[in-house]
Amino acid sequence: MNCMSCIEYIIVGVMIASAVLAVEWRDLLAAAVGMAAVSLFASLLFFMLQAPDVAMTEAAIGAALSGAVFIFAIKRTQRYETEEEEKPGWWVRW
Amino acid sequence: MNGQYASLLIALPLLSAFFVPLIKGLGERGIKYYLAVITALQTGIAAWVFQQVYSTGKPIIVMAGGWKPPVGINLYIGHFAALFVLIVAVVSFFTAVFSIWSMKVQPIDKYAMLFLLLMLGATGMIATGDIFNLFVFMEITAISAYALTAYNKTGEAAEASLKYMILGGIGSSFFLIGVALIYGSLGTLNMAQIAQLAGNMNPTVAQVGLALIVFGLAVEAELFPLNAWAPDAYQAAPHAITVMFSAFVVKAGLYATARLLYLMQAVGSWHDVLKLLVAMATLTVVVAEFAALRQKDVKRMIAYSSISQVGMIAFALALGSQAGVDAGVFHMVNHAVVKALLFLGVGYVGIKLGGTAMENFQGLGKRMPLTAFALTIGSLAAVGIPLFNIFWSKVRILIAGVEAGYTWGVALILGASVVEAVYYLRFIHAMWFAGEGERMREGLAISLILLLLAALVIVIGIYPDYIWSLAQKAGSDIFNVGQYIKNVPLMEVGA
Amino acid sequence: MLKRLLAITTLIIIGYWLAQGLAGVPFGQDRMLVGKYYLEHVVEQTGAVNAVTAVVVNYRGFDTLGEVTVLFIASTGVGALLWSRKKRRTARTEGSIVLTTGTRLLAPFVMLFGVYIFIHGHLTPGGGFPGGATIATAFLLLYMAFVTYEIPHRAFEKIEGAVGMTYVIVGLIGLAIGGYFLYDWIWQTWGWGHDNIGRLFSGGFIPIIYTIIGIKVGTELSGIIDNMIKEEVSK
Amino acid sequence: MISVYYFGAISLILIGLYAVLVKKNVLKMLIGLSIMETGVNLLLVSIGYISGRSAPILSEGIGPNQAVDPIPQALVLTAIVIGVATTAMALSVAIILYGKYGTLNVEEIRRLRG
């Protein structure tokens, strides 16, 4: 295993970890930041997959602006998930 | 005139939607009339395209940027697309006229833009010949539909829109994964070339890709497990928008499903996907009819009825036989007419009497006889009584179903039709034989549109042959993939 | 807990199924068909060095038109849904001195950088979308640093519309000159810029379209930010 | 053996889907949707990757046979922008919902049913 693929494995691992954290954190602000981190690591992966255009777009739009929009929405709603929402549910039952 | 001018079908709504912010100063009435004028123009272009395609018998291939098909994106306006682009434009014109009078929620200028772009999205979905372009147009349709569903800005509208959005988001992601798989194994996105090369595809990849695409489109086409959004959105959206949803937004999704399904005919695992779709469609019909039976709100009841009819169309399209596809297309046309009539009438009553609950419809025959008459015609047609248009297409679908060997599906659909008859007759009973009321004035334009559509229902019911011949041509446009490949001037690329 | 387990099992089945499909599309192999054609002909046919840009703007220009429309719908839709007669910013705390000074210094340069990105889209990675997003980021900085800052949103709406119309009109000029909608008339009919491929003045209508897209994306995204940040004041 | 990029992409899709299916908070569901979209984009780009080749910018002696497939990258550019558009729309609807009902729990905002 050469060093390049080491880096790939590490980035993919960190990306998945931040995705899991973004889903599980009850503080929505932290979750939004976690989502932006996923986008950021994905844009690193795009760069390694020889797609600089996509990497730039993902970093600018996917990470920065979509994170910002999420943060504004959280500011206008509420910051924490409630206890009730912690329990799993099924939206299918809607 | 050059066939490339058919690209105006896309260019005109776009241009006029972008023009709206600049004429904001015209005021509300001005913008509403502008909307009607633009949709009338679009109808004119669509009629020209229709006449062109049906008189020459050859499809119009619009090549964007002048690149030949596999390299560039092409629009394929064949018999089906020409017919349905015309229907989209005509229904949009009617709803634009209806919204002049009915639309009161601010801001009107944004409503006009979203309206035009919804029309554009459906037109593009029907006309495009490129699988990723289909995705883009699907998103245009879907996002403007999300915004328009929530347009009334009540809690219910926002809830319906959110439901639609979440299902739509999952659907579009699935669709995109399917596109990625197909692109990954074939290296092309053009529909004709995909059909050409589909035979050499790895059957597992093809099966997974096609199933993902069918699931993705099922959200737009309102098939069973993914249609939870539909009744809510129909109920909560502004009345004019409900007409558009039922008359052509669903049809665009159905068409896209059928087109992609038949393009991949050569794939080994094709019949498994067909069976999946038949099962989904039959379940749609049964579940929706039983849900419709216990509704108290007329708009929601008709929404469920619309979903069940859509399931029937999907059933016909998934039979995998020429007769089934023809009958499905015929039913699409009839359904567009009847549901446009019903939703326009219900929306009119809803605004006039302040709600669409069943109680408001009691005694409608005494209060608004013209509207009640039109609604009665529509209901009788929807039940499938002979001499109304839906009868012919329903019979043809059932015959095609028996021929294709899906007797159980036909039996279930017939059973569901009985349920449908029960609630529509209850509705007619409420309109004519219950309640009292004063005679009210009915608007001229709306009454004219309603009576026109009702006349259309009866005329097609008595002389179904002309529309049936159109539907047969359109159906063979979908079914006959060999002809489709031959019609698109594919260029040699690479190995 | 049971529900969660059930959900995870379903997801694992879906994942296995996806992996089965992906096994037929092995990673890192050359399966190009149309892509190869693009790579071989991109420089002579469009004059752009960056093949992705050429595909986005020229070969698949129709998609990009649709994409710009999607963003337009989003901006309009957000504007329509969060519409109210009286809207104002409600932030009270001024940005820290580092933020305000930094913003004052940087905002023009960030915008300039965005313009650079979209003008050079046919030569270097980037293009209209990241360029426009960078411009929107500059407005975002201004919003965060100054409590009373507002973009002139009426003017921005008009710019959005006008620029979108320009895009369609460029396409219609192509229809009139070359006979096809979105035809690259600058490169293919007039033949401008054939002798300086790889420099700024080449690439046919790509720089024009990307400028249009950049301005449009910038104004739309800042419009979305503006709508999200302002709240209704009930007085 | 499946590539690490495919693995990452599928994991992101599944994690996002899990959030959409199980979570009840609207914003959490939207975060899940957004993660799912990122996963799909990663999948598309990795399908277009060809080992040992460089980015499709044909200057400095990079010929047509030394570049990766440009089409998936163009598609992903489109998909990213569409994703952010959907997200912005969804968030504004969520803001309206919160304004009307004072909660973001989907179980509590069920008015339409039956």
List the keywords.
heterotetramer; C: 235 residues; mainly alpha; two-stranded antiparallel ribbon; 9 helices; 2 strands; 68% helix; globular; D: 114 residues; Helix Hairpins; 65% helix
Outline the fold blueprint.
The complex is a heterotetramer of chains A (94), B (495), C (235) and D (114).
Chain A: H1 3-24, H2 28-48, H3 52-76, H4 83-86
Chain B: H1 8-19, H2 27-56, E1 60-63, E2 74-77, H3 79-102, H4 108-127, H5 131-149, H6 155-186, H7 191-197, H8 203-221, H9 229-236, H10 239-263, H11 270-293, H12 298-317, H13 322-353, H14 364-367, H15 369-383, H16 389-403, H17 407-433, H18 444-462, H19 465-479, H20 481-487
Antiparallel strand pairs in B: 1-2
Chain D: H1 4-22, H2 26-48, H3 70-101
Helix pairs in contact in D: 1-2, 2-3
Q: What would you note in describing this structure?
A:
The complex is a heterotetramer of chains A (94), B (495), C (235) and D (114). Chain A is mainly alpha-helical and 94 residues long. Chain A has helices at residues 3-24, 28-48, 52-76, 83-86. The longest helix of chain A is centred in the C-terminal third of the chain and has 25 residues, at 52-76. The termini of chain A are far apart. In chain B, helix 11 (270-293) packs parallel to helix 17. Chain B has a domain at 269-481. Chain B starts with 7 loop residues before the first helix and ends in an 8-residue tail after the last helix. Chain B is built from 20 helices and two strands. Chain D has 114 residues and is mainly alpha-helical. Chain D has one domain (4-48, 67-101): Helix Hairpins, CATH 1.10.287.3510. In chain D, helix 1 (4-22) runs antiparallel to helix 2 and helix 2 (26-48) runs antiparallel to helix 3 (70-101). Chain D starts with a helix and ends in a 13-residue tail after the last helix. The chains are: A mainly alpha (94), B mainly alpha (495), C mainly alpha (235), D mainly alpha (114). At the B-C interface, helix 1, helix 4, helix 5, helix 6 and helix 8 of B face helix 1, helix 2, helix 4 and helix 7 of C.
